[in-house]
Amino acid sequence: MKKSMHKIPVLEWCFPHPFVSILVGLSWLMLAHSTDAANLAMAVLLGIVIPKLVQPFIIRTPDIHWGMALKLFFVVLWDIVTANIKVAILVLGPSRNLKPKWFRVPLESDHEQVNSLLAMIITTTPGTVSAGIDQERGDILVHALSAESEEEEIETIKQRYEAPLLIIFNVEPAQGEIE
After folding, report:
1. C-alpha dist (Å) from residue 75 to 72, 83, 86, 136
2. Which ranges does the record mark as transmembrane (predicted)?
């Protein structure tokens, strides 16, 4: 009986994680401050070798909705810029304007990547910090520097960040539908 060998296409073999290869190659070129032939060759070599070395540690690459990911990137970037201005005004203004609050944001999914990225986005947006993800309770504990309404803050987080993350990772909400 003849054994059939599973053939891997050359491009897939050389670039098991194309996004990582691109990041590594571009990072090398930016660190080198040069696009001469030697640096281009080194960028390609590193773009092949480093992803091959880390391949055993990357279990799977998720299917991502890249258009929505790009949109979310710009939403978060905009929110970071505007939140910096709001936080500066709050911090430099009278302390009576501060209304710090702790609240829990219920999670719509138990998807690790969605929940981790949601916590990271909350933390990177000035004025809010995620203190931890409670998988058993299905929520994220959040501290806001100044929040008028807990419900409004929760709804903003869910609509601006969580809903797009669920779409990006093709995850169905577990606890209910997002409006």
Report:
1. 5, 12, 16, 29
2. 12-31, 37-58, 70-92
